[in-house]
Amino acid sequence: MTIAGTMGYEREQQIPGDYDPNYVPDSVKSFVVHMYRHIREKNVYEIHQMYETSFQSISDRFFKDAPWPSVDAVAPYVDNDHVFCLLYREMWFRHLYARLSPTLKQRIDSWDNYCNLFQVVLHGVVNMQLPNQWLWDMVDEFVYQFQSFCQYRAKMKSKTEQEIALLRQYGQAWNVYGVLNYLQALVEKSMIIKILEQEKEGLEQFTATDGYDYSGGSNVLKVLGYFSMIGLLRVHCLLGDYHTALKCLLPIDISQQGVYTSVIGSHITTIYHYGFANVMLRSLSSQESSYTELISIDCSLPATSDLVVYYFRILIVHFNGKESNDNVDAYRLQLKLFLYEVKQQQLLSGVRTFLKVYSTITLGKLAAYMEVDEPTLRSDSISPPKDMIHVAESKPAKRYGDYFMRQIVKLEGVMTDVDRIKLE
Length: 424
Description:
Elements: H1 3-9, H2 26-41, H3 44-62, H4 71-74, H5 82-99, H6 104-123, H7 132-154, H8 161-169, H9 176-190, H10 192-200, H11 220-238, H12 242-249, H13 264-281, H14 290-299, H15 302-315, H16 326-355, E1 360-362, H17 363-370, H18 374-380, E2 388-390, H19 401-420
Antiparallel strand pairs: 1-2
Helix pairs in contact: 2-3, 5-6, 6-9, 7-11, 9-11, 11-12, 11-13, 12-13, 14-16, 15-16
């Protein structure tokens, strides 16, 4: 979810008084009937077209400031199919969050729907193919609504007694452990980590097929498991656990094209949170330093600086439900650490530039070139003995293993082709 999109979600809009949840326009009837048929036929192309285009156009025409018809109203048109109704409600709640301000009851109902949907995927027999965009949106929205609920719950002073009682009654709704457990369960049940390992050995074609199953099976569990690793990356970043965040992403080689690059939102979320976690851990390699350099430039602009502050307000999750300033203190601390790291990277970037042209240089001379005082340079970046910096050129070690492996594979291919030739 982008920052701009999140800002849009905070509009205080209420459901219009003339909204009738049981009224189903003909365009909605046609939409659900055709979507249901395409899902049963595993027509991914048509599903994608209806999901991306038709749903949005109908929303703009009939439901710009109102929810879609209730699931009970559309169920008769789709044979009361349980799984389709869960998918419809998933879109229903996502539309509600995007266009209106959900009530506490609606937030809890959305949690229940995700639980039921994921339970079907984890423990039922799901024989359908869905577009990667939809599957990514499920995971992305699941994490977003968790984050939104934590912010909502933290504002206890504005809650009525009825809302507080409802929060206590449904204490498990959007619980951080429940969210993590569902994402982890999808990863484990899908066996996606093993699939990606086997792909490296040439035993799987997951990336080559973008996760789709062209043998008549289902892609839902595998791709949800794949995207759930990115969801775990994001949740652990929200919790400030950057080590675990990066560990969750290890099975995905982000230096290569993958299923995560097939969906723009997934690609941006992956690279952004991967880079963010590395910045906070000071573990970005020299090749990845452009990430912090870009942030350094952006943070120098007033508008961007305001967005950084806003992002940290929504980044740090407050989930204990107590009326306190813990969430404010948490985001301020993380913001302070983040801006300190950006400042460090700005300074180090300048240090690298000057050290490329010197074999030795005094600390005072380097400080003068960089237009900073010597104590600042010493405390923030380097502390050489006797105030003299000696530059040792480092050459990357050559790696021959990959080259020989590629040649071996080529040779085996040639030998296989030779064996197929029938000599007359």
